[in-house]
Amino acid sequence: MKKPSFLSLFWKFTIAIVAIVALFGYINLFFINNTIYSLFEKEINYYGINNAKGIADNSVSFILYDDIAGLDKMVSNKMKIDSSVAYIIVLDGNNKVLAHTFNDEIPQKLLKINNALASLENIVKISEKSTPDNVIRDMAVPILQGNLGKVRIGIYEEDFVKSIHSINNFFLLMVVLFLIIGVIGAFLFSYVITYPLKMMRITAENLNFKSLLGSENTFEKQNSLVSFLNFNQVLNTEDEIDVLNKKFNEMVERLQKTYTELNEAQISLIQAEKMASLGTLSAGLAHEINNPIAGIKNCLRRISEAPENIKQNIVYIELMEEAVLKIEKVVGGLLNFTRKPVFEFTEFNLVDVIENVLLLSSFQLEKSRIAIVKNYNNHKKLGYGSQNHIEQVILNLVLNSIDAINEKKLENSSLNGELIINLNFEDDKTIFEISDNGIGIAEKNLKAIFDPFFTLKKIKQGTGLGLTVCYNIIKQHKGSIESQINLTSGMTFKVYLPTIKEKKNE
Asked: 384-423, pLDDT tens digit by residue?
């Protein structure tokens, strides 16, 4: 389906207003033209007929006394005092010209026009093909009921047409003015309506709860920019936009509250799973600490037995220092792992994270006789993300592999456990991969292993949250995690994380 093109409300309002004003203007202009022209016709006809009747009445005495010179002078004077008169012709009963206002002879074509009976009033419109706009109304009026002839007078329409054009121009000017006012009104009206909607859309599209938490409502701050146009505040009323605004603010507040609760629940879940992992590690950590302490106690006993043997005491002091450093390393790794998780994205050494996880789980690995195969160089390889959370992901995967291998040993006691760790860096991703030769999982259950509370562990009761926590942490890093059954029927987990470059560009 083709995506519809975007057309803002401003343009919709503008198009609607322009169309309405243009239609209104056209209808009114059509009405005015027809009405005014009809009135104009009546007016010009009335004006021409009255003038012709006046000339006809004045012509009676001149014709009766056969004063053609006086008749000619009378029509010439009438012509001079009225600029709207094109010509005047006085004819006798036989259509013979008695007087006229032409400088030369009368055009024969003109004489043939308006040949109605002398006793009838008649009006004919005349226009030249060369000048179609220059229209003359030829009006014939009988003299003494046609007994003495008739008077023909030509009246120019030009002055009347100019008046109509002036009215039309004035009306068109008003239409344009209304269009301008309408467009301005459309802009203001659409701004008042669309700006709050636009802010809601922008807020919804770029909703960042981390920035919204504990801050003033962003939408209310944005909406204050148009408060000077909010007539509802002046009138102390509400409309649909205000109700929508209020409901939107309430929705954002509920989302903020829900996000806070979910965020707190997730932190608690991650911490709970971390404490569960710590419980698994506790026996090994105690062993890792007790052995150096026992060595220190033995060294102190030997020193106390022969305090004067300086050479021997130096050796024992060096052994105690080595034991203290080992305890410090174990405790440091433990403290770093158990601190409260906060998503702080920084650069960190991935190899150091893996080595710390292997240190924390070394007792379990040794106890289960699991060999570690490392396919990475033990030098600085930077990752980008929350180091503490990535460490928890790796630890959860390692502990899962240990449990899977131990479960398989229940069926095959001669099994030599193996854990393979790969670390690869590509242009657009970092790939951490861990494979084991444990008991594995049925293919039908592969899609469910990341679901909360899903567990198939038999050796000890699992929470069913380890892989769920891993999945959520990787998703928050904008990465992905995959699981598959490998060639040993064990499990392989692949974690894909964006590179440092990609993370920095976000």
From this structure: 888 888 888 888 888 888 888 988 888 888 888 999 999 8
Q: What is the 3-state secondary structure (H, E, C) of 420-436?
A: EEEEEECCCEEEEEEEE
pTM of the full structure = 0.46
How many other β-carbons are positioned within 10 Å of the β-carbon of residue 475? 11
The DSSP output letter for 383 is: E
Using a pLDDT cut of 70, give the percent of the chain over it.
Answer: 76
Rounded Cα distance, 197 and 211, in Å: 21
Residues 447 and 128: their CA atoms lie apart, in Å, by 93
Domains of the chain: 9-166 (3.30.450.20), 342-506 (3.30.565.10)
Show the tokens assigned to 456: 């198939």
Report strand pairing: 370-375 vs 417-425: parallel
Q: Strands, DSSP E only, in 191-314?
A: none
Strand order in the sheet with 417-425: 370-375, 417-425, 429-436, 491-498, 480-485
Token pair of 253, please?
């507040």
Average pLDDT of 326-349? 70
φ and ψ at residue 496, rounded to 5 degrees: -110, 125
CA distances (Å), origin 226, targets 185, 195, 233, 236, 263: 15, 8, 11, 16, 34
The rounded distance, in Å, linking the Cα atoms of 40 and 276 is 101
208-227 pLDDT, tens digit per residue, is 655 444 444 444 444 444 44
Backbone dihedral region for residue 144 (phi beyond 0: left; psi -120 to 50: alpha; all else: beta): left
> What's the mean pLDDT when you consider all of the chain?
77
Q: Does residue 51 or residue 112 have the better pLDDT?
A: 51
- Nearest in space to 22 (alpha carbons), one of 157, 138, 183: 183
- The amino acid sitting at 350 is L
Name the one residue in this structure whose structure tokens are 């006789």. Answer: 369
